[in-house]
Amino acid sequence: MKSKLSIFFSLIFILFGSIVFFSNCNQDKKDEKYNSEPETSKEILNLMEAAYLWYEYIPGSFNIQNYKNAKTTFNALLYKPRDKWSFISTRTAWEQTKEGEDQSYGINFKYDANYNVRVTFVYDNSPMAKAGIKRSYIMQKVNNKDVDELINEGSFTNELGKGENKFQFRTPAGDTNTYQIQRQSFQMNAILYNEIKQVAGKKVGYVVLNTFLPFAESEIDTIFTKFAQESIDELILDLRYNGGGSSYLSQNLASLIVPSSHYGDAYVKYSYNDRVAEQADTTFTFIDPLQDTSLAGKPLDLSRLFVISTPMTASASEVLINGLEPYMDVIHIGDYTNGKPVGMQQFNIGNYAAVPVLFKMANANGEAEYYNGLEPDAFVMDDVSHYFGDKHEDCYEEALYYIRNNEFSGEAAKTLKRYPSRQKYFIPKGRRAFIGCY
After folding, report:
1. Binning pLDDT at 50, 70 and 90, where does residue 410 land?
2. How does pLDDT run across 159-195, given as a tens digit for each residue?
C-alpha cells in the first residue's frame, strides 16, 4: 500500500508539474533572475498545488520570483492559520534524523510549576548526558546570562543553536555546577525508560517511547517482545514527549496492543485533498502479528491501555491513542495532546526533502479534527521534579493508583477545562519536532 501511494504521487507530481511548468514558461527568465533555485522552486510549487491539503489557499498569482530560494518558496506556500507542521530540510539532515543520528546538545526542557526551566529528558549518548545532566535538573544560566532573561529577550533557543555554550545547572539536591559543553553528533535512543513491576498482584509494563521515527523499530521490537515474554497484565505507554514519526510503526505498535479480536479492523483513515482523494484515500487496519512476521515485537492482546500525554504528544502518537479508542479502554492521563490530526509525506526535490501536510486522519468512528488536542481522562501535571519510573512522579503515580483502585485519585478528578496552571513547553519546529531536542 505504501509503495502504491508513492507511485501514485509521483505520477500526480509529474502531471501537475507539466501543467504548472507550461503555464509559467514565459516567466522563466524573470524567475532565474530573482530566485537562486528556480527549477527546484517550480517543482515545489507544482507539488503543493497538486497534493497539499490546503492547496486552495495558494494564490493563483503566486510567483516564485518573489522568493530567494526553494526554502523561502516552500514556507511562503504554507497555510499559516492552520499549518504548524510542514517543513523543508536538506535530504541529508532529514535522513540522518530518521535513522537516529543528530548533532545537538540532546536535551529538552520546560517550565515547572514554579517557573524554573527544568530538563525533561536527555538522550543517553548526547553531550549533555556525557556531562552528567539528567531529567529534573534546573537550567539557570547560559553563557553567564540568566535563562529567564534570554527567554524574555527571545534569544534562548538561538543561544542553544551555538556550537558551544557554558551552562549552569542546579541539581535536585541543590548543588549548582557549571559545564562547558559542545554540540556533537550522537545516536539517539527512542526508549528513554522501561521497567516491569508488580502492582496489586499484576505485572505492569511501563515504557517511555520518545519517537516513532524509523530508528525506533528495533527498540520497540526488543521491549515489546520482553513484555510479551513476561506476560504483562497492564501497559503504561508514556508518550509525553513523543512528537510522532512513522505511521507504519504506530500501526505496528497499536496492533501489538489491541485485542486480537480486532485484527483486520480499521485503525486509521487517511483523507487527501479533493484533487487526489479518489485515488489516494486509504484505510489502514490492525495487523495480525502472528501472520505478519515483519511486525516488530510480540502481541500483548490487552483489554485496556494507560497512556500519558502532554502538548508534545503529536501526530503518530495521537493516531495511536485515537485509533485504539473504538476497540479498548484507553485510560488517558496528563494534559491535552499537541493537536495534529494531519499527516505528512516526504518528497525529495533536488537536495531538499520537502515534507508537507497531505492528509487528514480519522479513527474507525470518524473521530478527527482534534486540532485542540485529545483531551485526557485525568488532568495531571508533567512532574519533571521526579525521574521516569519514580513512584512519586505525578503521571506515573496516577496510573499506578488506577491499577490498584480501578478509579482516579481525588486530585486527578475529571474536569472539562485544561489544567489551570498548565506548564510551558519548548517544542522544536520542523524535523526536530519528531525528536524533541535542542
Report:
1. confident
2. 999 999 999 999 999 999 999 999 999 999 999 999 9
Domains and CATH numbers, the chain: 2-83 (no CATH), 101-187 (2.30.42.10), 191-434 (3.90.226.10)
Q: Quick one: what percent of the chain has pLDDT higher than 70?
A: 89
Distances (CA, A) of 217 to 41, 74, 101, 224, 296: 34, 31, 14, 11, 7
Query: Cα separation of 301 and 320, whole Å?
Result: 15
Give the C-alpha separation, 86 to 57, whole Å.
15
Within a 10 A sphere around the Cβ of 171, how many other Cβ atoms?
A: 14
Strands (E), 99-144: 101-104, 107-111, 117-122, 138-142
Contact 362/284 with Cβ under 8 angstroms? no
Q: With contact defined as beta carbons under 8 Å apart, do 271 and 282 qualify?
A: no
Yes or no: say if 310 and 289 are a contact pair by the CB < 8 Å rule: no
Strand partners, 245: 212
pTM score, whole prediction: 0.92
Task: Give the Cα separation of 229 and 16 in Å (integer).
Answer: 51
Closest by CA position to 60, among listed 24, 35, 88, 32: 24
Q: Which whole-number Å values give the CA distances from 335 to 69, 317, 341, 394, in the listed order?
A: 39, 14, 17, 12
pLDDT band at 17 (very low <50, low <70, confident <90, very high): very low
